[in-house]
Amino acid sequence: MLTLLIGKMPTPLGELLVVADEQGRLRSVEWQEFEGRMQRLLALHYGKPGFVLREAVNPHGLATALEAYFSGELSIIDTLPVATGGTEFQRRVWAALRTIPCGQTLSYGALAQQLGVPGASRAVGTANGANPVSIVVPCHRVIGANGTLTGYAGGVNRKQWLLHHEGVTGHAPAQHKQQLSLL
């Protein structure tokens, strides 16, 4: 059985739940009011009897690292270890999200194209919406092709705040040329 450590932390956007495994890898980052969604995703990825949640203060220092992100040390999220369940396609999308540079955005269609599945923007959007490790796996950096702030499980206001915090001045997607062949 997988033991997961869960801690809570305040942020400028509300209380955040931080879930890590015993090896110190993030398994979930979710807003407190969406704890039910987090529980459903954990059950989906690891099976209902397949994990147990244990309360912990600042599991493996990950809450401290996220506090640093909210305090302006934006690049710290690039260093945090993540382990997720999900399908192979979802994990490819989530890995690709981590390559979008801080301060930039990308459209769902452009992300699908870079993953080698042009025309699969809806599938990319669905995978993006199932991301269990928000902020660190920066699904908030993906926007509509026309620059609109579409879909964010934590709410569009949070998405807008996170993008502004990261220095995004407009909402038009930037070109992102990162090579994704290693995925």
Automatic annotation (TrEMBL):
Residues 88-168 form the Methylated-DNA-[protein]-cysteine S-methyltransferase DNA binding domain. It comes from the Bacteria. Its main location: cytoplasm. PROSITE patterns: MGMT (PS00374). InterPro entries: MethylDNA_cys_MeTrfase_AS, MethylDNA_cys_MeTrfase_DNA-bd, MethylDNA_cys_MeTrfase_DNAb, MethylG_MeTrfase_N, MGMT, MGMT_N_sf, WH-like_DNA-bd_sf. Residues 7-83 form the Methylguanine DNA methyltransferase ribonuclease-like domain. It catalyses: a 6-O-methyl-2'-deoxyguanosine in DNA + L-cysteinyl-[protein] = S-methyl-L-cysteinyl-[protein] + a 2'-deoxyguanosine in DNA; a 4-O-methyl-thymidine in DNA + L-cysteinyl-[protein] = a thymidine in DNA + S-methyl-L-cysteinyl-[protein]. GO terms for biological process: DNA alkylation repair; methylation. It is an enzyme of class 2 (transferase). The active site is at C139. One of its GO terms (cellular component) is cytoplasm. Its EC number is 2.1.1.63. GO terms for molecular function: methylated-DNA-[protein]-cysteine S-methyltransferase activity. It is found in: Cytoplasm. Keywords: Cytoplasm, DNA damage, DNA repair, Methyltransferase, Transferase. Belongs to the MGMT family. This enzyme catalyzes only one turnover and therefore is not strictly catalytic. According to one definition, an enzyme is a biocatalyst that acts repeatedly and over many reaction cycles. PANTHER family: METHYLATED-DNA--PROTEIN-CYSTEINE METHYLTRANSFERASE. Involved in the cellular defense against the biological effects of O6-methylguanine (O6-MeG) and O4-methylthymine (O4-MeT) in DNA. Repairs the methylated nucleobase in DNA by stoichiometrically transferring the methyl group to a cysteine residue in the enzyme. This is a suicide reaction: the enzyme is irreversibly inactivated. This is Methylated-DNA--protein-cysteine methyltransferase. It comes from Chimaeribacter californicus. The lineage of its organism: Bacteria, Pseudomonadati, Pseudomonadota, Gammaproteobacteria, Enterobacterales.
